[in-house]
Structure formats: C-alpha cells, structure tokens
Design brief:
The chain has 198 residues and is mainly beta. It has 2 helices and 11 strands. It has a 5-stranded antiparallel sheet. The chain has a 3-stranded antiparallel sheet with strand order 3-10-11, with no helix packed on it. The protein has a 3-stranded antiparallel sheet with strand order 6-5-8, with no helix packed on it. It is globular and about 45 Å long. The N and C termini lie far apart (49 Å).
Length: 198
C-alpha cells in the first residue's frame, strides 16, 4: 500500500505532480489484475507473493520468477516448479538449452540421447537435492518425481518464449510430436506478431 499526502502549504508543485504520477502508475491497469501484471522485472521480489498455477497438470506447481513475456527478458527465463510424488513433466523437447537445479526432493531424469526418427529408449539419471541437470538442445526428456516427498526445481531456459514439442511415448515419431506454443504459462501474455511475414 502506498500512502501519499499532499499539502498545499508544504508541497511544491513538482512534488504534487510527482505524487499524482506515482498514484497513476501504482493504480494503472498493469498492476491491478491484468493477465500480465508485471511491467518489467523489479529488482527485489518476494517469491511467496508470486502467482502459481498447475495449468491443468495434477501434481504441478509452477511460478515464473523471471520471464520473457511477463517481464520482458530477452535471453533467459527462470521458473520455480514443484512436483508432487508420482508427477512430472510430459515427454518433450525444445530448441533451447535448459538447466535444472534440484532444490529439494528426489526423482529421475529420462533423457533420449538418440536422434533417430523418434526419441527412443531414454537413459535414466537419478536426481536429488543439490544436483544440477543440463538438457541439450532438442533432446527429448522428462523429469519425474519418483521419490516420496515433493521435488522442487529451479529451471532456467534460454531463448524464451519456448516452443515445446510433446510426445505420447518414447517411440512416437518426431514428425508426430505436438507443438505447444505459446506454452501454458505464456498464453495470457502472448501477443501475435503483427509483422507481415512476406
């Protein structure tokens, strides 16, 4: 809450104009329930005050801490995701680098290192608190909570907003993978380019 007091005897006209401008900024649409409420990235924020959602995926809690569409970042996007036991990401790939930092819990990374006509049988890697995971560009992968407590990860992706290709199983052909763009947490803020492609 911001309280501004303007008294004609003690305030200068510049101070009054500044106070009104501050109030107009504070109560403008971007800060009052708009789909993309943050215009720019504040220097310091309290994570517990950020919106979170499961986007229709049971067992998921997702927060965009720093995003391209939400905050205007150009080169990187950072998410905080929590997976309940038994839940995880879909099998997917994307044309960006991705790094996970496991904050708590344990699980399994499934990574298809082959580049044939389908992802193929994945290699399994155990993940645990204080471990990092690097996903190479376009390698199909899945992170799953195979532990008994929540798996919480900090996720950093390059080149946002990302285009995600999802698979029903590890042997689904790449040509049949479904493109999801914008991805669920970018949908509210995504605006089609008005640029003529011709």
């Amino acid at each position: 809450m911001i309280l501004v007091s303007v008294s004609s005897s003690s305030s200068s006209p510049i101070g009054a104009v500044f106070s009104v401008a501050l109030l107009l900024f504070y109560f403008s649409e971007p800060t009052l329930g708009a789909p993309c409420p943050i215009n720019g990235l504040p220097i310091v924020r309290n994570i517990s005050e950020l919106p979170q959602d499961n986007y229709g995926r049971p067992g998921l809690s997702h927060m965009t801490l720093a995003g391209s569409l939400l905050h205007g970042l150009k080169e990187v996007e950072i998410w905080l995701q929590t997976f309940a036991p038994g839940s995880g990401t879909p099998i997917h790939r994307h044309s960006c680098e991705e790094v996970f930092v496991v904050l708590k819990g344990s699980g399994t990374l499934y990574l298809a290192e082959t580049h044939g006509t389908s992802p193929g049988k994945p290699v399994e890697f155990p993940v645990f608190a204080n471990s990092t995971i690097h996903i190479p560009i376009n390698d199909a992968h899945q992170v799953k909570n195979t532990g008994h407590e929540d798996l919480q990860v900090l996720v950093i992706v390059s080149r946002p907003p990302i285009k995600v290709f999802t698979y029903d199983d590890w042997f689904m052909p790449h040509t049949a993978a479904r493109l999801k763009f914008p991805y669920y947490w970018d949908e509210q803020c995504f605006q089609e380019s008005q640029k003529d492609e011709l």
